[in-house]
Amino acid sequence: MVLLRRVIGDALRARRQGQHRTLREVSSAANVSLGYLSEIERGQKEPSSELLAAICDALGARLSELLREVSDTVALAEQMPGVLVPVHDEPVDAAGVRKAAGRSVHQVSADGKVAVQVRQDSPLKATLRTSRVRGGDRDVVCAA
Length: 144
Fold this sequence. Notes:
Mean pLDDT: 75
Largest sheet: 5 strands, antiparallel
Oligomer: single chain
Order of helices and strands: HHHHHEEEEE
Number of strands: 5
């Protein structure tokens, strides 16, 4: 199952790392503790709307851009069978689902702007890796 807090955290981390900034720099600018920002980026804590807005401001990003990015990732995940519902590891089938290392299922989907690869770690945990293409540049967003 895809957790929204992990998708948000990974989108924030990708933006921060894309700017070559440290957790310390962003946490100071957003007026949030370094440890708490780290937990948000790792998907362990879910930020309030106020805190999310402050972090976006510290990153020089619009909240609407971040939420659109997160929405696109979740929308693609919803279109992929077995991503948002519990599934069990299975061998390769016609839909492109394949068993890897005896525990993971990988799937790939793309809509021209965003490509998603999914690793099903367990029946209730999936890891998404998305790549967004913007005019030739690629922003990589890791999500789970």
